[in-house]
Amino acid sequence: xxxxxxxxxxxxxxxxxxxxxxxxxxxxxxxxxxxxxxxxxxxxxxxxxxxxxxxxxxxxxxxxxxxxxxxxxxxxxxxxxxxxxxxxxxxxxxxxxxxxxxxxxxxxxxxxxxxxxxxxxxxxxxxxxxxxxxxxxxxxxxxxxxxxxxxxxxxxxxxxxxxxxxxxxxxxxxxxxxxxx
Amino acid sequence: xxxxxxxxxxxxxxxxxxxxxxxxxxxxxxxxxxxxxxxxxxxxxxxxxxxxxxxxxxxxxxxxxxxxxxxxxxxxxxxxxxxxxxxxxxxxxxxxxxxxxxxxxxxxxxxxxxxxxxxxxxxxxxxxxxxxxxxxx
Lengths: 181, 137
Prior knowledge:
The complex is a heterodimer. Chain A is mostly helical. Chain A folds into 2 domains: 1-96, RNA polymerase sigma factor, region 2, helix turn helix motif (Rna Polymerase Sigma Factor, Chain: A, Orthogonal Bundle), CATH 1.10.1740.10; 116-181, Winged helix-like DNA-binding domain superfamily/Winged helix DNA-binding domain (Arc Repressor Mutant, subunit A, Orthogonal Bundle). Chain A is built from 9 helices and no strands. Residues 1-5 and 20-28 of chain B have low confidence and may be disordered. Chain B starts with a helix and ends with a helix. Helix content of chain B is 65%, strand content 0%. Chain B is elongated. Among the domains of chain B are: 64-93; 96-135, no CATH class. The chains are: A mainly alpha, B mainly alpha. At the A-B interface, helix 2, helix 3, helix 6 and helix 9 of A face helix 3 of B.
């Protein structure tokens, strides 16, 4: 935590900000990109969201009070940016958020940046059909192996509620997969 | 008897309850946990420089330029001018007293009233104006 404070101070100090931000980007770019990518599914969309996320981090670092870890804070910004992105894209097309995500998942077969087999494709389609909160929790827990304590801090939700969400998500996916595969 | 009832004769493997939760909520192993998504070649190397460029430009653009301030002030001044012009061009609003007088004149025959009654409904300044206007050649 002390090491984090030093790093955050470097990010806030105009003299060291640029160098510290370079380190921050280098350290977290991939983790944040993959978190966002699993939510928005498309590479170009993920690229837009990851850029917005880092710009927000850069502009708001002075407001970061270290009530959470830097990573948790950035993950929270990334999640919100991804959800806002989906919201705005869906609204422009006159769709519900979930409909937009489902359409994206259906389009993965034609996506040159999707290398999954049939099972992986079916799994993505099923994940897209989950309610928003369950979808986020499933991605963070199943694919990223993130501990509940951290997910709880990122999503500001109790661990009990997260376990319930994950349990429901897994149950739905298992049932559907057994029918499909 | 009580001791007999309390004793649990069944056993579980070591560490069973620690793993139980994960086993219960873990999906089938047949589903690959491998990441099926990919990125363009060297994407993350390019991303880093793109991000640094983006944030630098966002910092530059966040500082208000002299041009922006000048245009903002000009726009506000123009808006105030237009507002003032429009307000002045509007016909004067009839006061309640004037309205009552007009209604009175429209509703009754003036010849039934003497000059004193009509003058009592006007204010001194208005009477003077009227007299001055009459006196003008």
